[in-house]
Amino acid sequence: SMTGSNTTPIVFKKGTYEHMTVKFISNKKCTKCTLRMYGILKGVPVPYPVDQSLVTNGLILPLQEQQEHEFTFRLNVRNELPELQFIFKVELLDENGEAIFSFTIPAVIEG
């Protein structure tokens, strides 16, 4: 489950930090995770730069198998981003590059 927005699409305001919390049950033990975010435009995933310290600051490691975890992170919605609608994709990968969780949700960037 995800908190941080009660609307669909999620509205990202330019010049702000948007906070999100994801609750998930890990299907494996994991000692190192990598966060990836994308904006999917016309079916093409465009990587969004991610500060990997978000992972170490927002998630307690190691992840334990079959336990609920909570991951809170923030997204810097830079002023230079264009106003547009897109699909927001977030994935958390383990040390082997395999997905621990992945989700997509409609989003919009507004000024």
Structure, described:
The chain is mainly beta. 5% of the residues lie in helices and 55% in strands. The protein is built from one helix and eight strands, in the order E-E-E-E-E-H-E-E-E. The protein has a five-stranded mixed β-sheet, with no helix packed on it. Strands 1-3-6 form a three-stranded antiparallel β-sheet. A hairpin with a 2-residue loop joins strand 4 and strand 5. The mean pLDDT is 90.
Give a quick rundown of the structure.
The chain is mainly beta and 111 residues long. It has one helix and eight strands, in the order βββββαβββ. Strands 2-8-7-4-5 form a five-stranded mixed sheet, with no helix packed on it.
Distinctive features:
5-stranded mixed β-sheet; mainly beta; 3-stranded antiparallel β-sheet; 1 helix; 5% helix; 111 residues; elongated
